Amino acid sequence: MKKIIIAAISINNVIGCNQKIPWDNKEEINYFKETTINNAVLMGSKTFLSIGSPLIDRINIVISKTKRENSGNIFYFTSIIEALHYAYKLDFEKLFIIGGSEIYFQTFSEADELLISRIPIIVDGDKYFPEIDKNDWELTEIIHNKTFNVEKYIRRIAKD
Q1: Which one of 65, 75, 129, 150 is least enclosed by Cβ atoms within 10 Å?
Q2: How far apart are CA 31 and CA 91, in angstroms?
Q3: 35: helix, strand or coil
Q4: Domain chopping of the chain, boundaries
Q5: Collapsed DSSP state (helix, strand, coil) of residue 54
Q6: Amino acid 160: pLDDT
Q7: Residue pair 39/58 in contact by the 8 Å Cβ criterion
Q8: What's 113's DSSP letter?
Q9: Which residues contact 5 (CB under 8 A, 6 or more apart)?
Q10: pLDDT of residue 158
Q11: For 2-6+16-150, CATH number?
């Protein structure tokens, strides 16, 4: 299973402000939906609450400090390790890690790929995406859209 971090990021690496995405980009939301549909998505509880409801046609794996009852297509875990073990059992080709910032930082070393929607604005925010170290990540493709670009990265294999 490929572990893919997917995120929308401003030019100055902001991903959130006051528990909200600080822009409204319908084209990017459609890209996110089309990319993640029929797969599993992993997120933190704050991200889950900010979305407001489970993402349909996806298995929603939520990291929460308090254990909660699973319901429908929502599965709660108290650690990333537990959540990843569960995701492997689902036998999906891809697991999309969708945020928020704490989850991105905790899973950055686990991810195989990055799909970064670069939103061409500078905004104030209180949540940031980790720096992408070019020694660890190779930019393999840029897909140009009307209102954003998608940067695709793959993890560089360490050489002996």
Answers
A1: 65
A2: 23
A3: helix
A4: 2-6+16-150
A5: coil
A6: 41
A7: yes
A8: E
A9: 96, 97, 104, 107, 108, 111, 113, 114, 115
A10: 59
A11: 3.40.430.10
> Which pTM does this prediction carry?
0.94
What residue type is assigned to position 93 of the chain?
E
Supply the pLDDT for residue 157: 80
**Structure tokens, 159:** 């050489």
Beta bridge partners of 7: 116
Closest CA to 96 of 137, 36, 51, 46: 36
DSSP 58-73: SEEEEE-SS----BTT
The token duo for 34 is 């089309």
Query: Of the candidates 89, 4, 13, 82, which has an alpha carbon nearest to the alpha carbon of residue 41?
Result: 4
pLDDT category at 67 given cuts 50, 70, 90 is: confident
* Pure H helices in 8-152: 26-36, 45-51, 80-90, 101-107
Closest CA to 128 of 8, 50, 13: 13
Query: Which has the closest alpha carbon to 44: 10, 13, 15?
Result: 15
